[in-house]
């Protein structure tokens, strides 16, 4: 049994070949010709970019936390240079005798001066300077073989108190906690954007499917009279919108890759440690490659359920 209806004035065409064997077209098949593929391309591009941002932020936070989890900074706040130098040597000797110290390093004075030069200038604590010079605390970078818990910090303070009374101990993770909290908030925002874009994609497909159903109502009624089922009609819509979603998804992913690689190259030029640690790994690229596939599946399922629901009310 063969049924075909030619378009009167550009309207969608339905071709029906032997019911139950294979259905042809209920909606136009000119790929990438209507607005739907381009809407899906935009949605996929934005979703991939938001997902890449969330993954990069997550990588940066995870790497930074792992790096500074056992990091401790010992500051020697003694203003007199000779006493400060003596306390620094005594503190280093006391820390070396501790069993759970993985490593330590005294930060050179030149490195400290370079760190604060942009804010305080070059004449910070020059030898022979009079009165106006600002004494810079000595710093010891300590690495513990585990997390810097409050108990371990208290134990270090007890060890250093007799030999370096001006010593102040801080966990490096506590300094960056506000930064980590802000980055986690941005990651949650990126995930929320991905969810909202998926919802917007489903809504766009739903509207497109309803519009196509309204335009082909008479044809669908004839198909039912000839023995066609709701599932067969829904499969036609599902296939057509799936092809549109696949084409739009491929275009959207390509656009997203251009943006992601361009932005990644610019951030890579900064040479910042936390930025470098946020680079995408191969599993992240695999997730990005799955975005158009998942978008196509979402579009097809949305179209199918929308058509089946509408047909139950229509007939």
TrEMBL record:
Domain of life of the source: Bacteria
This protein's UniProt keywords: Cell cycle, Cell division, Membrane, Transmembrane, Transmembrane helix
Transmembrane segments: 38-57, 184-209, 245-265, 285-307
BP terms from Gene Ontology: cell division
Official protein name in the record: Cell division protein
Organism the protein comes from: Novosphingobium clariflavum
